[in-house]
Structure formats: C-alpha cells, structure tokens
Amino acid sequence: MNTWNAILLQKASLQLGEGALWHPLWQQFVYVDIEGKLLGRIDPKTGSSEIRIMDKHISLALPATGDKLLVALQDSLALYDFDSEQIQELIPLEPDLSHNRSNDGACDASGRLWIGTMHRHAKPDQGTLYRYNGSTLTGMITPTSVSNGIGWSPDNDTLYYIDSHSPYIRAFDFDLQYGTITNERIIVHIDLPGCVADGMCVDAAGMLWVAIWDGSAVHRYNPDTGALIGVVQVPVPHVTNCALGGTGMQQLFITTARTGLTPEELHQFPLSGSLFIADVDIAGSNPFYFTGTAAT
C-alpha cells in the first residue's frame, strides 16, 4: 500500500473548508469555507492567493463556460465572475425548505451538475441529490442525509457517491446520454469507528480518493475490490475534501476544517482549517465544466 505525507500549502483558519477544485484554465486551486462564506483561489507555484467573501454560505465552486464559476449557495445555484464579483442566480434550491442548504457536488461529462442538499444541522434523511441541466432541477436520490463525494469512472459508465451518514461508498450504472442512474450497489465499506467519509475525487486510473473526517487522512480505494490501496497522512483531524491537479496533475490538494474541535484539540492541531498538498505521482483528470446545455 502506498503512503504519502501532506505538507502545508497555506496556513488558514477555515471553519469548514470544502469544495476542493483544480481549475484547469486558471491553473489554481479553488476552495470554499462554508461557514465562513468564503471563496478562495491559490496558485501553488507562486503561493499567491485571493479570497472573496460571499453574502451567503457557499458550499461549492466549479468551472463553467465563459470563465465563470458555478457556485452552490445555501439556497440557490448561480454563476459567479471571480474578477468582477458579479453574480447571476440560475435557480432556487429547495426554497420551501429553509432548514436545508447545499453541500457537495460535481459536473458530469455532459456538463450537468449533480448537487446534494442537507439539513443545516445534519439531521438524517432531510436532503436530496439533484441533477441540474441548466434549466431543470431533478431529484435523483432521496432521501439523503449528508451528500458528499461524487465522481465518475474514466469511461463514464459508473457514478460513485458518498452519503456521510453511511459507512459505504455506493456505485450506480450511469447513462451519460440521458443522465440516469441504475443498479445501486455498495463497493467500499469504510470500517473506521468514529471516522466519516467526506469529499472524493477520482484519478485517471479510476481509483477513488476519499477525505476521512476525524481520520487525519485521505484514503485511496480500488472501486473494483473495495480495498484500501493508499493513505495520505494529513496533520489535522478534520479532513474534508481533495482534488488532483497541479504539476503533471499529480498533486493532491486537500481542504480541512476547524469546526467541531475543542479548544484543546485546536491547541493540539493548530493547522486545522489550513490547506495542504501532497505529491502523489498519480495522475488525476481535469474536472468537467458546467455548460448548462444538457438535454435531460
């Protein structure tokens, strides 16, 4: 089994760092702080960084056509221009459920967004995983509790999904043309008492990289066998999300969180809420852009 050690990319105090994204056009690492209402980007080569403070909680930022970002705010989806700070709302998100907010998501190869919602206090079975094609928001899995990691196999035939209230990673047969999922099954059992599977990315070989909340690590799993085949050690407990990118697409960018830690734990782990990086020498793939033009 391969092991790596993550090192500090940028010291920060993110309350709930999330939304790890490698932006292929900008060649920058993009991230959010959900509780801090913060959207940031950092150039790992120069260390230069910029942040934007949003009016609402933000859980996700993904590349969109026109050099915009598709952002998931607490109660809507919108297009955002990082430079001008102009925002264009696309569609409300569960306007009749004020206790819910957006959480993790990703775009498929046809440019559709898959985005999960959850109760603000993580009450079980209050959320839904939606598919958004630019005009219609369609519930695909319901109920869900805490939608987190989502990704696809390199051939786009399989969708992988994490609900953090479950110790499993699930897979579905995926129809790229129609954006449908069938044949749900469990592919990985994460048997780590006290730990929770959080965000996820998929490498070019089809292996799954999963952030382990309260586990001080990112785990690499083989979805065909369910085996744990790699561990990235992170020097803080609350590891939230990860994305492959950077030099040769072989660097793993990692977000972490301070929320939920006691004063004693924050003293013990002072880098909690910071951004980390690991040279893993395993290639990732660029994320798909939101186009908003999918037919389904």
Describe this structure in words.
- The protein has 296 residues and is mainly beta.
- The chain has a single domain, classed as TolB, C-terminal domain (Neuraminidase), CATH 2.120.10.
- It is built from 1 helix and 25 strands.
- It has one helix at residues 263-268; strands at residues 2-5, 7-10, 17-23, 28-33, 38-42, 49-53, 58-64, 68-73, 76-80, 87-92, 100-107, 113-119, 127-132, 137-144, 147-152, 158-163, 168-175, 180-189, 196-202, 208-213, 217-221, 228-233, 239-245, 251-256, 275-279.
- The strands form 6 sheets. The protein has a 5-stranded mixed beta sheet with strand order 1-22-21-20-19, with no helix packed on it.
- A hairpin with a 4-residue loop joins strand 16 and strand 17 (168-175).
- The termini are far apart.
Regions with little confidence, pLDDT below 50 for 5+ residues: none
Largest sheet entry: 5 strands, mixed
Query: What do we call the CATH topology?
Result: Neuraminidase
Total domain units: 1
Number of helices: 1
Describe how the helices and strands are arranged.
Elements: E1 2-5, E2 7-10, E3 17-23, E4 28-33, E5 38-42, E6 49-53, E7 58-64, E8 68-73, E9 76-80, E10 87-92, E11 100-107, E12 113-119, E13 127-132, E14 137-144, E15 147-152, E16 158-163, E17 168-175, E18 180-189, E19 196-202, E20 208-213, E21 217-221, E22 228-233, E23 239-245, E24 251-256, H1 263-268, E25 275-279
Parallel strand pairs: 1-22
Antiparallel strand pairs: 2-25, 3-4, 4-5, 5-6, 7-8, 8-9, 9-10, 11-12, 12-13, 13-14, 15-16, 16-17, 17-18, 19-20, 20-21, 21-22, 23-24, 24-25
